[in-house]
Amino acid sequence: MVAKSKGKITENLYAIGNEGLPTFLLTGQAPVLFDAGMAFMGPAYFQDLESHLGNAQRLRYLLLTHSHYDHCGSAPYLKRKIPGLKIGASARAAEVFKRPNAVQMIQNLSKEEEENFKSQIGEENICFDKLDIDLPLEEGSEIDLEEEGKIKVVATPGHTRDSISFYLPWSKTLICGEAVGTISRDSSIRPQFLASYDDYLDSLEKISKLNIEILIMAHLHILKGEEAREHVSKTIEATRVFRQRVQDVLTEAHGNQEEAVNRIFHEDYEVKKIIWQEKRPYLINLTAQVKTVAEMP
What we know:
Elements: E1 2-4, E2 7-10, E3 13-17, E4 22-26, E5 32-34, H1 42-53, E6 61-63, H2 69-72, H3 75-81, E7 86-90, H4 91-96, H5 100-116, H6 118-121, E8 135-137, E9 142-144, E10 150-155, E11 164-168, E12 173-175, E13 182-183, E14 189-190, H7 197-208, E15 214-216, E16 221-224, H8 226-252, H9 257-271, H10 279-294
Parallel strand pairs: 5-6, 6-7, 7-8, 12-15
Antiparallel strand pairs: 1-16, 2-3, 3-4, 4-5, 9-10, 10-11, 11-12, 13-14, 15-16
Helix pairs in contact: 1-3, 7-8, 8-9, 8-10, 9-10
């Protein structure tokens, strides 16, 4: 089953925010929020936390899949609103957040959306000023939620070098950011290797060995049952196919990466119109993918 990233997912797991920029709230004795969307979404997330938890101060953990601006953006805002909140991310992501240029990039990418949603933000300070990680996580780390059980951390680099996923054994749920391919407007799968093609495939192979009933994707979609399990194998194939496509375009462009990016952008974004993502971040990601393939031995 393919469902929208909206509302109740399981008995105590909910998608909050909106379908394009959801975060995922696990309620219970030790509530957990997975990912933090863009900065401008902070007030909306906080309002939803109040609604679901009765008191947002009950939120104990915020766990981030990776350091991209549309997954960590509202984390500083939520930390300011909920001082007792413990933020977890990979050790690599913790290092990224210490870099002034990385913070500046997150701020720059966030600004356009902030202008579009001024009425939603109001007078709130949503600035991504800094982000300190309380819980550096790695492969095999566990977050003990007492009566709910232990969340298992799975290292899934490839989309970024700092990507991790979270496995909930009691419901066979994987929250994985873009460690798997996203679903395009035409239902095709779009692989998301930006940092490393080989690491991305290795991570997919690792994910394929997990017992998954619910696959929670970064944006728009949640897959359940057979669709969840099939999506991983389909992403592996789509990743190989897209790599070959990029190599073919690079050959036609005599190795010119910019020309290759422009050709793929024109075909998929302007002609087929199958990409959900906004133009600027899509071009940044596509440029990274083409560069990754071009530099492969």
